[in-house]
Amino acid sequence: MNLKDVFQTKTVFSLEVFPPKSELATQKLLNSLTGIQSIKPDFISITLGAAQMDIQKTVNLATAIQEQLSIPAMAHLTGLYLSKQQAADTLSILKESQINNILALRGDQVSNCPPVGDFKYAAELVNFIKCHGDFDIAGACYPQKHPESSDFVADTLHLKEKVNQGASHLITQMIFDNEAFWQFKERLQLANINVPVEVGIMPCTNHQQIQRITALSGIQMPKKFTNIMARYADNKEAMRDAGIAYAIDQIVDLVASGVDGIHLYTMNNPENAQRIWEATHTLFEAQNKQLAYPL
């Protein structure tokens, strides 16, 4: 079953990890992921750096997740530093490895490293993938708009083009303000963009890490969240617990309001994912029962 079909039957729960630098660290990650098999995530996505330097590591980790854990994997593919020939070769490798799910991204430009130029926008990469195999393609979206977009209208039009070219579902950038997501959903409805949207949630357990990520992405933080960071920045344990509690609170609100799915940015910390799932799994189960047996 393609992932796009899974959204028709349940509220999706998925995870994201990144390929470690060494084989030893990769095996350690796989061992730790074994502990989350009880969660039974609908898929695990594997990131790829903007400059395509670790593409084989992404493929290898995706393959291991599918073969060793029996969990569907989604490989990230970024376009800025990818030629059409490289893209075709990578798609062949993914097909041979039976990795059918791809998150197609434009990717961030690396300083002092000019892009290849074959894929200026993610929509072009989506179209290329669509024409080169029977892949299930997801696209990224930005509820508070892409930092390079001039306004919400332009951002929504770019997103619509991505969907028109073949993206069957969307995953949002991490958000910390649920209201921003619901406003985003209203814009999608007005633009007649009718595909499932998973909300990206990242438990803030490291103050410096979250500062770096939000500075790069331009995400606006709600006061409730900035209060947590200010209060617990110097207390590692309290920051972890407060961050996990905040993520749980977001998920409760989103699932209760009928969100299509939750995509958890784990930062390679399966233990945090386990804690969040233990606190929220009954919500997913109740929602899925309702979807299976509507009144």
From TrEMBL:
Its cofactor is FAD. Pathway: One-carbon metabolism; tetrahydrofolate interconversion. One of its GO terms (biological process) is tetrahydrofolate interconversion. It catalyses: (6S)-5-methyl-5,6,7,8-tetrahydrofolate + NAD(+) = (6R)-5,10-methylene-5,6,7,8-tetrahydrofolate + NADH + H(+). InterPro entries: FAD-linked_oxidoreductase-like, Mehydrof_redctse-like. GO terms for cellular component: cytosol. The keyword RNA-binding does not apply. Belongs to the methylenetetrahydrofolate reductase family. PANTHER family: METHYLENETETRAHYDROFOLATE REDUCTASE, METHYLENETETRAHYDROFOLATE REDUCTASE (NADPH). This is Methylenetetrahydrofolate reductase.
